[in-house]
Design a protein that fits this description.
This protein is mainly α. The chain has helices spanning 2-21, 29-46, 48-63, 65-74, 79-93, 102-123, 133-141, 166-193, 203-223, 228-251, 258-285, 304-309, 325-331, 334-345; strands at residues 143-144, 148-149. Strand 1 and strand 2 form a beta hairpin. The termini are far apart.
Length: 346
């Protein structure tokens, strides 16, 4: 955990310094609470590549479910062979069933590091990482709005001093409910909109359905012992996940899912609106002129004598046998023929 202490404390102190420069009280709970939110944003931004990998892995797992079912029918009597063929299928497709858990698995050590960093600063003024004793004391004793200790939690606030600290209990309960609701909504959003129908009945779907209810319950039960600062981190992280996943599902859904059909409908409607606008613009800007059929030129009438005397290129004379076409054209005088035709006509 020591490397995580240094990373987390460095980011936390950086944000705290920024908010102090902006005018917030260095010892106040608001500056430390905003620093925790800033820490969350930095961590989640750093995890974006893993999130993209998680989305691709989840999508591949969904698309492979029909093939997994075929393997189950074929090797249902041999579990070892079924496991081997299933892993071979995943390997050939370039996916990993555990890749979808990477973001949350990597966040758990950060979560516990922040918990221990805040707990140590509260109970013994013990610094971790780049925190000094003075900064650790400020962090542990800071209060939101002057009365809500950032290290307070729901469970211990029941016997805070002589009377329960109702304000801490209410804020902690709200954050626990928000953390639970965002966890459930994020998972539900993935299953309802970005999973094909054939993937909703396999073992992978059953696993997702179990996590849909187990994770929120686990976080809800454990959340009553988490300090407000840690609950703030986890709720902010869940909100980031929910918004990030909503964007990905809306703009890059998996084929064959309700989200994919909804995107197709939006694209068709957008294309129809765009095409209608373009047609109207062209019609108004450049109306097509009315086209009339051109007058056909009638051929001039010739007498029988004219037809006989007019040589035909490449053919025979009217009254004789075959002649050389080049000789006909060489002896042909257009002006003489025209004068003769006019005389014959008269």
């Amino acid at each position: 955990m020591v490397p995580l202490y240094y990373i987390i404390s460095a980011v936390l102190l950086g944000w705290h310094k920024l908010f102090t420069v902006l005018g917030l009280d260095a010892k106040g709970g608001l500056s430390w609470a905003l620093s925790i939110i800033g820490l969350t944003l930095v961590i989640r931004a750093a995890l974006i590549p893993l999130f993209v990998k998680q989305i691709k892995s989840s999508r591949n797992m969904q698309l492979l479910q029909p093939k997994v079912k075929e393997l189950q029918k074929k090797y249902g009597h041999d579990r070892q062979k079924l496991a081997e063929e299933t892993m071979k299928l995943y390997k050939d497709a370039g996916t990993n069933p555990f890749a979808s858990c990477l973001p949350i698995l990597l966040q758990m050590p950060i979560f516990f590091a922040l918990f221990r960093l805040l707990s140590g600063a509260t109970k013994s003024d013990k610094p971790h990482g780049f925190l000094t004793v003075e900064k650790a004391h400020e962090f542990g004793e800071s209060k939101l709005f002057g009365s809500l200790p950032i290290n307070g939690n729901f469970w211990e606030s029941r016997t805070w001093g002589e009377t329960p600290n109702t304000a801490v209990m209410v804020i902690a309960a709200i954050l626990v409910l928000a953390m639970t609701a965002t966890t459930f909504t994020t998972q539900r959003q993935l299953m309802a909109k970005n999973m094909p129908a054939e993937a909703m009945s396999g073992p992978y779907a059953q696993q997702q359905k179990m996590l849909l209810y187990i994770l929120p319950v686990a976080f809800g039960l454990g959340g009553i012992a988490f300090p407000i600062g840690v609950l703030l981190y986890w709720t902010t992280s869940n909100l980031w996940t929910m918004g990030q996943q909503f964007y990905v599902i809306r703009n890059n859904p998996a084929p064959g899912t309700p989200a994919f059909k909804a995107k197709q409908d939006r694209d068709k409607a957008k294309a129809a609106r765009h095409g209608h606008t373009v047609t109207e613009t062209i019609t108004e800007a450049a109306p097509e002129p009315e086209q009339r059929p051109s007058t056909r030129q009638q051929p001039k009438r010739q007498s029988r004598a004219q037809r006989k005397t007019t040589p035909k290129p490449g053919g025979a004379a009217a009254g004789g046998g075959a002649k050389n076409p080049s000789a006909d054209w060489e002896s042909y005088d257009p002006e003489a023929a025209t004068e003769k035709n006019e005389g014959d006509t008269k």
